């Protein structure tokens, strides 16, 4: 069995050597052969230098360098497109995705599962705000999305060759891997694990909110719920305005005086304006993503491709 491991990296020079020290000895007896593909956004630290030394020492260590920063989702897709393995594992290099768990994933793969994803038993080390945002984010996504995305999961997962081929063949440019894998389907299972702290350095996402853009892709790119929600709000506001008109008419007939500059008018105007702006904003989210898709620009541009034939 030939195994590919895709590791997106950005400013991770302090983690790569320790990751390789733990990962390589685990893989050598477990599979026939393997490749470690680091998908690297141009980094201001010595990430590329560390990768060059690692490749010189072990040709199974390869890396892609993009011409500009494309972000973790697109870097992951780029690594998956370059991977040639019978199965592909996507994981982080900071050792919060334990290398030892790959062996458990391989066991599940040999049992016949096409996708084996790692599900966190807790979110230790994250701020309370980030845990709350994540909790409600997954609830919202699974409430409205057309596919079911398992809670407390990241991109850490093993995928069979046919799953990888289907995912990279999709034309969508947002790269929300959790949603794309759920969309493709096939036989999937989970491995629950205790997530450790980072080995070194700090994460590249906001420590309080994580990546709201990635979360928004989970809602907008896999559901029309927000569009339907704005339409519902429009009907509710129209109904409220109609009821308010009847109330004012009845009060006027009964001779109830109204003061000049009735504050209700101000409240209604602000309410209607807020709903309109919200609806326009929701439309903008969808139109923006449609705009990105119809341009059909390349998902990424490679600067270097080291270690590939």
Question: In short, what is this structure?
Answer:
By secondary structure, the chain is α/β, with parallel strands linked by helices.
Attribute tags:
8-stranded mixed sheet, Spore Coat Polysaccharide Biosynthesis Protein SpsA, Chain A, 2 domains, 309 residues, alpha/beta, single chain, 8 strands
Commentary on this structure:
This protein has 309 residues and is α/β, with parallel strands linked by helices. It folds into 2 domains: 231 residues, Spore Coat Polysaccharide Biosynthesis Protein SpsA, Chain A; 71 residues. 49% of the residues lie in helices and 17% in strands. The chain has an 8-stranded mixed sheet with strand order 7-5-6-4-1-2-3-8, sandwiched between helices. Helix 1 runs parallel beside helix 2 and helix 9 packs antiparallel against helix 10. The longest helix has 33 residues.
Q: Averaged pLDDT, please? A: 76
Q: Regions with pLDDT < 50 over 5+ consecutive residues?
A: 206-210
Order of helices and strands: EHEHEHEHEHEHHEHHHE
Number of helices: 10
> Could you say what the CATH topology of the largest domain is called?
Spore Coat Polysaccharide Biosynthesis Protein SpsA, Chain A
Class from helix and strand fractions: alpha/beta
Largest sheet: 8 strands, mixed
Topology:
Blueprint lengths: L1 E8 L3 H15 L5 E8 L6 H11 L3 E6 L5 H11 L4 E4 L10 H10 L4 E6 L7 H17 L8 E8 H9 L7 H8 L3 E6 L18 H9 L4 H29 L9 H33 L6 E5 L3
Parallel strand pairs: 1-2, 1-4, 2-3, 5-7
Antiparallel strand pairs: 3-8, 4-6, 5-6
Helix pairs in contact: 1-2, 9-10
